[in-house]
Design goal:
With 301 residues, the chain is mostly helical. 74% of the residues lie in helices and 0% in strands. It is built from 14 helices and no strands. The longest helix is centred in the C-terminal third of the chain and has 25 residues. The model has no long low-confidence stretch (mean pLDDT 85).
């Protein structure tokens, strides 16, 4: 029996907590850099940070890469390049509250993608309603944290970009989980972020220009933290997706933690963010959904 700190539950919570800290880091970083260029730099550095931990070190990196180049290219394009390009383009076109709701509903849509893509990951009606309960909590938290509106600068194309982000994320999760070559997870996370981050950076230049000026310390602190959390969280997630018996839908249910943890961190760190009773109710709904899902999993064992 694995110790608790190596269990799927504990590692999934750690990965989701790390991802939840990205909101604050991105807020600081984007004060001094353009979105796509900042994201490209972040992921490129993240990939480099993982390199020393690959089995066999840098010396065997290119040997592993040649053997697994197909899935590396697919995941690089899907997860790092397309997903984050779509995310940044979409988030600029919709209000923050609506963007949070769409992205927060990701676990439900990913579970539906897994349902049609994997024979051993079917979405029962009970699981569907639990996912829907989690999404409702996301809606309440988002309304509580932002001045929710569907007027003004809401653009349908922005919503499409964000939904595309979710679909691409779901497809990537399925691709990694079904990888028949059992590509080493650290190789996959490192190489896809190096390649995808480089693609994002190059793609940004014609649209955002090239900014090589020195920036304040806040920028480099945010970039360092975001690079670390991406390296750690993506590597953990890929390890879990490749574990025998781990289902894509069950694993992604833990992502409902992200908006809750992200909101709490924002209230603590950002001066213009503060808690209210509506957001707290949403968090309680998400907590109930997660407890019911855990009970449901135990009953199936």
């Amino acid at each position: 029996m694995k110790p608790f700190y190596l269990s799927t539950t504990f590692l999934a919570i750690i990965a989701c907590f790390l991802w939840s800290t990205a909101f604050v880091g991105v807020k600081y970083g984007l004060q001094y850099a353009t979105p796509l260029q900042f994201a490209g730099t972040r992921f490129f550095i993240s990939g480099l940070l993982i390199l020393p931990f690959i089995n066999g070190g840098v010396n065997k990196y290119f040997t592993y890469l040649r053997k697994n180049i197909r899935i590396v290219i697919i995941v690089s394009i899907l997860q790092t390049f397309l997903q984050y390009s779509m995310f940044y383009m979409g988030i600029k076109l919709v209000p923050a509250s609506l963007g949070a709701i769409i992205i927060g509903s990701g676990p439900l849509f990913i579970a539906m993608i897994a349902h049609v893509s994997m024979n051993d990951d079917r979405l029962s009606w009970k699981k569907f309603w639990l996912f829907l309960l989690g999404v409702s909590g996301i809606v309440v938290v988002s309304i509580g944290r932002n001045n929710f509106t569907l007027t003004g600068d809401v653009k349908f194309t922005g919503m499409l970009f964000l939904f595309a982000t979710i679909i691409i994320s779901g497809i990537t999760n399925v691709v990694v989980s079904k990888d028949s070559n059992r590509t080493p997870p650290l190789l996959l996370s490192s190489s896809t972020m190096i390649i995808g981050g480089g693609m994002l950076f190059l793609f940004s230049i014609p649209f955002e220009g090239l900014d090589l000026q020195l920036k304040p310390a806040d920028y480099y602190i945010a970039l360092a933290w975001l690079s670390f959390l991406s390296a750690a969280a993506v590597s953990i997630w890929f390890v879990l997706l490749k574990r025998p018996g781990v289902k894509v839908s069950d694993l992604n249910f833990w992502k409902f933690i992200i908006p809750v943890s992200g909101a709490i961190l924002s209230w603590i760190i950002l001066p213009y963010e503060y808690p209210n009773h509506i957001a707290f109710i949403g968090m309680c709904i998400i907590a109930v959904a997660m407890m019911l899902m855990n009970a449901h999993r135990r009953n199936l064992k």
